[in-house]
Amino acid sequence: MEAKFSELLWKTIVRVESTEEKISFFTETGEYRLSHFQGCCESVRVRVESIEGDLDSLVGSPLLVAEESVNDSMSRLESTAYDDRSRTWTFYKLATIKGHVDIRWIGESNGFYSESVDFDFFPKAES
């Protein structure tokens, strides 16, 4: 189910898993996942461009910062005569008392599709 990134504020992460296309934050109540849902016929690439800081510093202490920001527009950035792809940058700032992490995502397309990062919550299954 779709969630707001700020829902992570004051939650305690027990585990983090990351790949170039997905970052999962596990809490006692379930998994919060950053990724991009690829729609039918979509020509989009969304991936983690960089992670500054140690993801492990987010484990075991409540999150004191959980912020998301996106570049101002879906316009074509840094385009040239040979590169007319649209780009969207999304930034995530997270911090605990043990450290902070900045995550930078880039989404690229031909401009006809969403380049956004999806944030979803998957509740823990009842035992």
Explain this structure to me?
With 127 residues, this protein is an all-beta fold. The protein has one domain. Helix content is 0%, strand content 46%. It is built from no helices and eight strands. Strands 1-2-3-8 form a four-stranded antiparallel sheet, with no helix packed on it. It has a four-stranded antiparallel sheet with strand order 4-7-6-5, with no helix packed on it. A hairpin with a 2-residue loop joins β6 and β7. The mean pLDDT is 86.
In a nutshell, what does this entry contain?
The chain is mainly beta. The chain has one domain.
Short descriptors:
four-stranded antiparallel β-sheet; mainly beta; about 0% helix; about 130 residues
